[in-house]
Design goal:
With 187 residues, this protein is mostly helical. Helix content is 80%, strand content 0%. It is built from eight helices and no strands.
Length: 187
């Protein structure tokens, strides 16, 4: 219980520092922003390590690659983002119409978090939705909070809703698939 209280207080402190540093008046202390961003990335990395611990090595690599890609997509500065978007739409031409529309960023948020959640369900045979929804929800909120620390990025509460919707939808689909598998195996 004591460890949980300490962990919650430390997390609240990290959130408070992030919000404080995200304020426009604190733009001159980039080293501190970098340090807090590194703390967030370390914390999220620890959560992903915990979620992927019992996963076989090949699948664990896939989880980590998607985790790193998800972090990059959420935290890359906007001036770097455009060439990457052009490169991705060049490779995946069918998404160029969607990405250029007004709902493109919404689909990216929803899709990335849904894909990450589905990947965790695929990678772990023992992956049950309920014990893991809280860490995944925290991950969704943390990636938006971290945008306070990246020059040119702004967190958006609607993006948090999209992230959570992606997680929830993937959890429901995976839960339904596991129930279907059990029914087919049992009868």
């Amino acid at each position: 219980m004591r460890r949980t209280v300490i962990a919650v207080l430390a997390l609240l402190g990290l959130v408070g520092i992030t919000l404080w540093l995200g304020h426009a008046a604190f733009t001159g202390i980039e080293w501190l922003r970098g340090l807090v961003l590194a703390a967030w990335i370390g914390l999220l990395g620890a959560v992903v390590w915990w979620l992927s611990r019992p996963v076989p090595p090949g699948r664990r690599r896939v989880v980590w690659v998607l985790f790193i890609g998800l972090l990059l997509a959420m935290l890359i500065p906007p001036d770097w983002l455009r060439p990457i978007q052009d490169w991705v739409t060049g490779w995946l031409g069918f998404v160029s119409a969607v990405a250029s529309g007004s709902s493109g960023p919404a689909l990216v948020h929803f899709g990335l978090f849904a894909a990450f959640t589905m990947l965790l369900f695929w990678a772990r045979a023992d992956f049950q939705p309920m014990p893991f929804l809280l860490p995944l929800a925290g991950f969704a909120v943390a990636t938006e909070l971290m945008q306070f620390l990246v020059e040119g990025r702004q967190p958006d509460p609607f993006d948090v809703v999209l992230n959570l919707a992606g997680i929830g939808t993937a959890a429901l689909v995976a839960w339904g698939a596991s129930r279907m598998r059990l029914r087919l195996a049992g009868g």
